Structures are given as structure tokens and as C-alpha cells.
């Protein structure tokens, strides 16, 4: 079977497949595979067979044709074809729950030299890798892969890929939610912190920064409590990504940023960077005029409990308790029961 006849038979199979005559389409494609000597045509028909068996749930058959397709791609000596065939092999193993193999084949795809198909298929590779990490309950890496796939979808206006990523994120959220229930039932603090990080990352990826920030704060508190330094870094990184997504920082966010940076550089002993952030922190304090009206110390520099009065003036709780007055030390207005902040 020559090149022209191979193309005609492939198109005939596609028409049958699109009209829901799946078995007849498979017969046409198998006949092409048996009789055609055109490598390009054989590669294309193998791709059709892989897709058809995937949609029919015949994953072992899908894997068989994916392996044959890789051999054909090697004969063609084309990096684009090799990328596509390795992606099909990764997907086949993903469907068969061979998640470690899926990740390995996805990494092979990503390690191939730059190809024309890379921009189109890169998002699908990241999606398949994310699904594999999710199957292994490696939540952080799963979400990183899903985010990468979503960026590919947005950059290439690929609505279908975006839809598939959103479906995977839905499964991810449900699995993390179930893990959080188990963590709360058993009082597993490390697992609670990990789930909070995942929830925060999900909200950040959806652009819901106001929900993400408190999740990161809660995760940071638990990570600090249990002494998980790597977890603290992941929480800080998530907060930093939120601030980058905001593009503009208000003064309070800048204060928190410099305060966190100061603690990081202090722990690492990097004195020059530490001094720079201490200076910027005090500059922000002066610009926002965040000082206790009684002791004169800056608010936020230390982890002290604060009290807001009905007149909106804020003081250190210990200063108000030591002062003993019922009125605001600043404006002398009568103070009712204050609220804590």
C-alpha cells in the first residue's frame, strides 16, 4: 500500500470513527498497519489506534500500539514524532495505574531536545505527570505539574487542555479534602499542615488570593510548631507567589515581606541582606506610622498581642493593661470593650 492509498484509508477510518462506527474504523486502520510501507502513514495510524483504544477503555491494547509507535518514531528519526509517541506511552501507563512509569516517560518527553511539537504537547505531558503524582498522593508535585499544564493551556489558547486540567484539579481537591478529614480525626499535625499548603496552592492557582493567604499562615504556624523547616520554606514560597500575583504590594504586605525575609536571612547568617531588610522594615513602619501610642515601639516588629479601641487607635495589650485608664491615651475618648486584632 503506497503513500496516497495509506492517506485515503486513514481518512476513511477517521470518518467511520467520527460517525460512531468504531469497530469498522479499527478494521480499516489495522489493515493499513498490516499492508502499508509508508512510515509516516504507519505512525499516524498508530496514533489513531492509541486514541481509539484509550477512549474505549482498552488500555492494554493502547499500551501495545504506543510501544509500536515508539519503534516507528525511531525509524523516522524525528524528535517531534518521538515526543508524541513517548507521551502516548506515558498516557497508557497512567491509565493502567503504572504511575512511576508514567512519570519516567514524561521526564523523557521533557528531556528531549527542543521540538516544534513541544509547545503544543508540553501541557499534555505536564498534565499526565500531574495525574501520576496525584495517583501516588504526592500532592505538592501534582499541583506544580497541573499549574504548569494550565500555563501551557492559557499561553496557547487551548480550551480542551484547560478543561482537562480543571477536571484533574477537581479530583485533586477532593483527595486533599479527604486527607484533611483523616488528619483532623487522628490529630496528625504534619498531614494537616501539608493539606493546608495544598488548599492554599489550589486557591492561589485559581486567583483566589484572599483565601490562599490565611491557609498559608495556618500551614506556616503548624510547620513552625512541629519544626518542619522545609514546610516553612514551602509556605513562605507560596506567600511570595501570592504577592507576585498581586503585582502591587500595600504597605502592610511590604511590612510582612521584610519581616519574613529578615527571619530567613538571620537564620542563614547573611548579615548584609539581613541589614537591608531591617532598614526597609523600619522605613515601612515610619511610612505607615504603626507605633504604639504608649510605649513608642513599632507595631508588628515583635509578636505582641494588640488591642484596637472603638476610636480605631491600636496599642499593645500589655501597655493598655499597665496604663489602667478607661479612655484612649491618644484622643481621650471613652473606651468600651475593645476588640482584639
Question: How does this model look, in words?
Answer:
With 341 residues, the chain is mostly helical. The chain has 15 helices and 3 strands. The protein has a 3-stranded antiparallel beta sheet with strand order 2-1-3. A hairpin with a 5-residue loop joins strand 1 and strand 2. Helix 5 packs parallel to helix 7 and helix 6 packs antiparallel against helix 7.
Q: Which keywords apply here?
A:
single chain, 341 residues, mainly alpha, three-stranded antiparallel sheet, 15 helices, 3 strands, 74% helix, elongated, disordered C terminus
Average pLDDT: 80
* Sequence of secondary-structure elements: HHHHHHHHHHHHHHEEHE
Shape: elongated
**Radius of gyration in whole Å, from Cα?**
29 Å
Figure out the total of helices.
Answer: 15
Kindly state the number of beta strands: 3
Spans where pLDDT lies below 50 across 5 or more residues: 336-341
List the helices and strands and how they pair.
Blueprint lengths: L2 H16 L3 H14 L3 H17 L3 H18 L2 H17 L3 H13 L6 H18 L3 H17 L3 H28 L2 H17 L3 H18 L2 H18 L4 H18 L2 H18 L17 E3 L5 E3 H7 L15 E2 L1
Helix pairs in contact: 1-2, 1-3, 2-3, 3-4, 3-5, 4-5, 5-6, 5-7, 6-7, 7-8, 7-9, 8-9, 8-10, 9-10, 10-11, 10-12, 11-12, 13-14
Summary, kept brief:
The chain has helices at residues 3-18, 22-35, 39-55, 59-76, 79-95, 99-111, 118-135, 139-155, 159-186, 189-205, 209-226, 229-246, 251-268, 271-288, 317-323, and strands at residues 306-308, 314-316, 339-340. It has 341 residues and is mostly helical.
